Amino acid sequence: MDVVEAKGALPKVDCARKKRTVQHTFSNAIADRVQLRHFIYFWALPNIAAIVLLPVFGIPTGCEAGLFLVGWLITTLGVSVGFHRLFTHKAFKTYAWIESALAVAAMMAAGGSLISWVAIHRRHHEKSDVEGDPHSPLGAPPKQRDTWLSKAAGFLHSHAGWMRRHEYPNPLFYCRDLYRKPELIWVSKRYHWWVLLGLIVPAIANGIVEMSWIGALRGFYFGGLLRLVLVHHFISAVNSVCHGVGSTRYNTGDKSTNCWWLAIPTVGESWHNNHHGKQTSAYFGHRWWELDLGGILVWLMSRFGLAWDIHGYKSRNISSKR
Ligand SMILES: [Zn+2]
Ligand SMILES: [Zn+2]
User: Is this structure's pTM higher than 0.70?
Assistant: First the structure.
């Protein structure tokens, strides 16, 4: 489970006061323990296992490479288009069944449940690179980083270290809109099942193709474990690399940058300064050469009538309202 589902982790709403108060963030022993456990089981151990097993499994076959690519595309688009553009920023609207499908795809990346991810990311935008940002490369608390050693420490904090323990954004404050959709809460609560699904499906697929248990194991490794680890690093690079390395187009007052060489693996997330500049836009590429696979998916969905009320980066809807 993650912090949102841990019994006793979330703070109680103070109903005694005339105006009900909800804490913006919280920290307690249960939340700290669950965060550390999640970091160990969903980040540290998969990374170690992926490295140790790489020489064992060697070069992937065509089918195994295909399973990796399909798994990367589905889960990364789930995070970018689902968790980020749709649920966090409400950049477009779609059908309830597509919302649930995107949430499931995103949770197979093992970066936290829907509610947890959205709460943390909304907090990130609220406090970007200042005190309260969960994963700024300036550290927690943020400070000037002049030496290479200090910059490397900040990079590691924003890339992975922050997951071990940080003040938790209260979903009862940050995700009130999502709590109004019971089907999404149902999906979010089953986070661990979706992570498992993302590991098992490629194992079954490759086991059937190769008609062997070894084939199933290789499918588990290339389409499941290795894919999970690399997608983790791609998404984390948006926090670490894209808050310091690259160019800026918008004066956002934070450290966000556009980083072209991460555009493909992050399906467009690395146009991060564009995103901080125009947060509600469904499109992160703001020039024709800025490849944004997530934006292309939203555009395709709109062409097939599966997405509407789409916010463009010029602050206008490019699709008619239904
Ligand atoms: Zn965002
Ligand atoms: Zn950012």
Answer: yes
